[in-house]
């Protein structure tokens, strides 16, 4: 169990530091600093350590496969506004509102960092776009945010992270789509 706990701690810390780096590049350092602190809480940390296999798979997915649900995930998505599920309300006329700029950009930084951590040396700059297109449930994501993510992830595929994750670029794209 100690080996799993250390492995999990290393993986989430690596992810958190990478998100922080990307958030600084994107001009939202505070969101990067605050990113995923709940992963160190007892509710999330102990369950995720128990179901940790390696740095290539999510312990949340492993928990869901075995137990059918994850208390850690329910806690995480309920406390972290950089997750689509935080904003989702299935009983609302609008399933997901327009996610505010800082959280939308943090969500992008999170997705990029997760891909790099999980894929390791196999990661390529088209991975965030491929993952987004394969995994996103379009009917729950606001059309404007979907368009923003698609535009930025395509730009990362074509131009790379360093050219894309610039505050001016992100703000211009967000405003052109959302109108803020």
Calculate the mean pLDDT score and round it. Answer: 92
Supply the number of helical segments.
Answer: 11
Distance, first to last CA? 48 Å
Rg from Cα: 16 Å
**Share of β-strand residues:** under 5%
Q: Let me know the number of strands.
A: 0
Q: What is the oligomer described by this structure?
A: single chain
Major sheet details: none
Judging from the principal axes of the Cα atoms, what is the shape?
globular
User: Which spans of ≥5 residues are poorly predicted at pLDDT below 50?
Assistant: none
| Structural category | mainly alpha
Fraction of helical residues: 55-70%
The topology string of helices and strands comes to HHHHHHHHHHH
Descriptive notes:
The chain is mainly alpha-helical and 180 residues long. The protein contains 11 helices and no strands. The chain has helices at residues 2-26, 29-34, 42-50, 59-67, 71-79, 84-87, 101-119, 127-135, 143-159, 161-164, 167-178. Helix 1 (2-26) packs across helix 3 (42-50) and helix 1 crosses helix 7 (101-119). The chain starts with a helix and ends with a helix. 33% of the residues are buried. The model has no long low-confidence stretch (mean pLDDT 92).
Give me a quick take on this structure:
With 180 residues, this protein is an all-alpha fold. It has helices spanning 2-26, 29-34, 42-50, 59-67, 71-79, 84-87, 101-119, 127-135, 143-159, 161-164, 167-178.
Keywords:
single chain, 180 residues, mainly alpha
Secondary structure blueprint with pairings:
Blueprint: H1 2-26, H2 29-34, H3 42-50, H4 59-67, H5 71-79, H6 84-87, H7 101-119, H8 127-135, H9 143-159, H10 161-164, H11 167-178
């Amino acid at each position: 169990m100690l080996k799993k706990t250390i492995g999990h701690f290393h993986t989430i810390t690596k992810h958190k530091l990478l998100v922080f780096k990307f958030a600084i590049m994107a001009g939202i350092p505070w969101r990067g600093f605050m990113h995923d602190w709940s992963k160190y809480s007892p509710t999330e940390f102990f369950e995720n350590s128990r179901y940790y296999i390696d740095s290539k798979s999510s312990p949340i997915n492993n928990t869901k496969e075995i137990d059918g649900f994850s208390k850690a995930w329910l806690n995480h998505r309920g406390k972290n506004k950089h997750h689509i599920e935080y904003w989702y309300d299935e009983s609302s006329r609008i399933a997901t509102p327009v996610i505010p700029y800082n959280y939308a950009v943090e969500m992008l930084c999170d997705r990029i960092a997760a891909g790099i951590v999980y894929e390791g040396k196999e990661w390529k700059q088209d991975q965030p776009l491929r993952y987004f297109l394969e995994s996103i449930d379009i009917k729950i994501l606001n059309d404007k945010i979907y368009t923003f993510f698609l535009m930025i992830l395509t730009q990362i595929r074509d131009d790379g992270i360093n050219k894309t994750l610039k505050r001016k670029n992100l703000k211009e794209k967000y405003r052109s789509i959302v109108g803020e």
